[in-house]
């Protein structure tokens, strides 16, 4: 998983509440189990018309927001079904951070596991950041995860809170598997001891955990 430390990037506005996971990635695109390739279908019903042509009025189809790595939105982002394809699609599109007053719990947890930083800020602050995004190419925010602060285009600094463990895992670029693999020697030692104590017990190498 790519490390997240300091991100300076264009922010795109999606000033709507209750954007659900079906809006983020429609169900018909969930047949794959691969994390790559879903970005082209992110927000499909908003980005494309019934003929598959891009809608010119949708923000992520316009410059400079095609290069956005930050989304600023409103309450309950990621509600609906629990599909992990939603953060996969956002990440594949290029989104590394989503800022909102609140998130659906499962989407919130899945985001951290896939290298996306979800930041909770008040509705008032989110509205201010939405105004910042209207500056186009100058609508860059800086997210400093180490210091837990956002720097607006005008230089104002906004603090945010992140669970210490999740913060460290993002800083280190470690997903659940990588976190487990830190303990390879201990796992193998445990399995060797278990095999000797109980010969019938099937040995599981730690190497298989990463496959």
TrEMBL record:
InterPro entries per UniProt: 3-IsopropMal_deHydase_ssu, Aconitase/3IPM_dehydase_swvl, AconitaseA/IPMdHydase_ssu_swvl, IPMI_Swivel, LeuD
Q: Which reaction does it catalyse?
A: (2R,3S)-3-isopropylmalate = (2S)-2-isopropylmalate
Molecular-function GO terms, alphabetical: 3-isopropylmalate dehydratase activity
Q: Give the EC class as a word.
A: lyase
Segments forming domain Aconitase A/isopropylmalate dehydratase small subunit swivel: 1-123
Listed A to Z, the keywords are: Amino-acid biosynthesis, Branched-chain amino acid biosynthesis, Leucine biosynthesis, Lyase
Pathway as given in its UniProt record: Amino-acid biosynthesis; L-leucine biosynthesis; L-leucine from 3-methyl-2-oxobutanoate: step 2/4
Gene Ontology biological process terms, A to Z: L-leucine biosynthetic process
Per the UniProt entry, the Enzyme Commission number(s) are 4.2.1.33
Task: Quote a single Gene Ontology cellular component term.
Answer: 3-isopropylmalate dehydratase complex
How does this protein assemble?
Answer: Heterodimer of LeuC and LeuD.
- What the protein does? Catalyzes the isomerization between 2-isopropylmalate and 3-isopropylmalate, via the formation of 2-isopropylmaleate.
Which family does the entry's similarity section mention? Belongs to the LeuD family. LeuD type 1 subfamily.
- Please give the name of this protein: 3-isopropylmalate dehydratase small subunit
Q: Which organism is it from?
A: Commensalibacter intestini
């Amino acid at each position: 998983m790519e490390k997240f430390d300091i991100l300076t990037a264009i922010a795109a506005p999606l000033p709507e509440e209750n954007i659900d996971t079906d809006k983020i990635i429609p169900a018909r695109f969930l047949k794959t189990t691969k994390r790559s390739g879903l970005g082209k279908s992110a927000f499909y019903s908003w980005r494309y018309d019934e003929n598959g042509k891009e809608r010119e009025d949708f923000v992520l189809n316009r410059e400079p927001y095609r290069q956005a790595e930050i989304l600023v939105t409103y309450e309950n982002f990621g509600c609906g079904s629990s599909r992990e394809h939603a953060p996969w699609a956002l990440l594949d599109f290029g989104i590394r951070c989503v800022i909102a007053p609140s998130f659906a719990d499962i989407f919130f947890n899945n985001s951290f596991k896939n290298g996306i930083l979800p930041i909770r800020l008040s509705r008032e602050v989110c509205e201010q950041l939405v105004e910042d995004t209207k500056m186009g190419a100058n609508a860059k925010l800086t997210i400093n995860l180490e210091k837990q602060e956002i720097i607006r285009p005008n230089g104002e600094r906004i603090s945010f809170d992140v669970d210490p463990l999740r913060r460290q895992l993002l800083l280190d670029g470690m997903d659940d598997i990588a976190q487990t693999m830190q303990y390879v020697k201990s796992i193998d030692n445990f399995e060797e001891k278990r095999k000797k104590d109980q010969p019938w017990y099937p040995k599981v190498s730690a190497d298989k955990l990463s496959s």
